[in-house]
Fold Glycogen synthase.
Amino acid sequence: MSAIRKAARLRVLFVTPECAPWAKTGGLGDVSASLPAALAALGLDVCVLLPGYPSVRQAARNARKVADIRSAHGLPSARLLRGRLPSGVPALVLDCPSLYRREGGPYQDGDGVDYSDNALRFGLLSHVAARLASAASPLVWRADILHCNDWPTALAPAYLKLGLPGAAPSLVVVHNLAFQGIFPLDVAERLGLPPESLKSEGVEYWGKLSFLKAGLYYADRIVAVSPTYAHEIRTEAHGCGMQGLVETRANRLAGILNGIDMDAWNPRTDPHLDTNYDADTLEDKAPNKRALQAELGLAADDDALLLGMVSRLTDQKGIDLVLDALPELLARPVQLALLGGGDARFEQAWRERAAATPERIAAVIGFDERLAHRIEAGADAFVMPSRFEPCGLNQMYSQRYGTPPIVRATGGLVDSVGDFSVDGLHRGEASGFLFADATPAALVEAVDRALKVFADRVAWRTLCRNGMARDFSWGGSAGRYARLYVAMRAVAAA
Ligand code: ADP
């Protein structure tokens, strides 16, 4: 029997701190919507567990209570509600108003400050996830595999290994190793972590408690969200202090490239666009550029290379590199349309630059799903100068929208963008521009390469079409997860 057919019997609990469209701050929100749907399409019995933030309670208002969770250790009591995501995938909503009914986002208040009780908020999420994957499950349904995502869920493998009966195997997926969930060690008691786990061969990390460390240490498998990132997190440059531990677990580490939701991100049907188009009607992309220029107050200029950016405004994303490159970029026939939010200093700097040159630079500070789609379609090229990028989704969206990405050669960007060369163009492999150094000069050089190709309309069209022809669907990668689950089950059963 093929591995995928074997996987069809598996019950998978996919625990996540965010899931689009109910709660999303970044790529994890998108992946939490699209990967479970792809796994369900393969026949797996997959269920998503996420906290009942107000937006989730509102979206899942028809969800009904399926279990009461009694308080344990220093964690409060809660309820499990069962509903369905828009994809049809079952969702378990962890309802605990004292922890999750907040005005701000999933992790931070409206001022961008982390909630002071995040250890408990995500400790509870991890604890309930682990119970659902054990003989102590509060439901008849009990997971065969626990699929954890990032630090807010990464304590779950520790709970499974540290005493829950009938524990299922677990994997922790690293979407971003830089976020580690580090808290004072004295919160361990309230989380119910036994004293023997509070050491470096356990959850302790330089005198503190690290959720991510716990996951990396106790999970049966570790997955990084691209093959290149799987390699990078073993190095000092990208290991964020965890490289030693990751290295000791290298034989349990895999890299699986994220896919995208090909329906939500489809220029042929995207309801946010003025004019829909596909690879055969690429000329219909042009009205989207004009519409974007008009909407953002940029000059109506068909010939300018309109660069789009949709990003968290943080050091990771290399936002400062673009700011520093602006004088050089503005000396070229270039416009910029940026959508993003994050560090106050970057928000301020972009506002100022846009105010100084409104016909060339537009900066919309905030989160706006509609505008994100319109930038993907309306821009000529998409810029991602990330210092590191575990996978990155926007470069995939932009290729699907015929908007070649200009990206730094790191992580998933290496695995999903084909660098321009004349040969690569004609072989169908080139789909964007990569640059190596995290410097403004290297970025400008890559933009110059793009400008040169942009001046040759036939070559540019071929480049756009190469990107549009790439398959970023979950098909292959969901199958890789399914095969991994089967292998984990086989080891657990042996
Ligand atoms: P990360 O998860 O590191 O932020 P990704 O490229 O993996 O980066 O995913 C980012 C996701 O969040 C994409 O779907 C992107 O369109 C979206 N996004 C980021 N910032 C904004 C914003 N300001 N408005 C709308 N969508 C945004």
The domain at 3-259+474-493 is CATH 3.40.50.2000 (Rossmann fold).
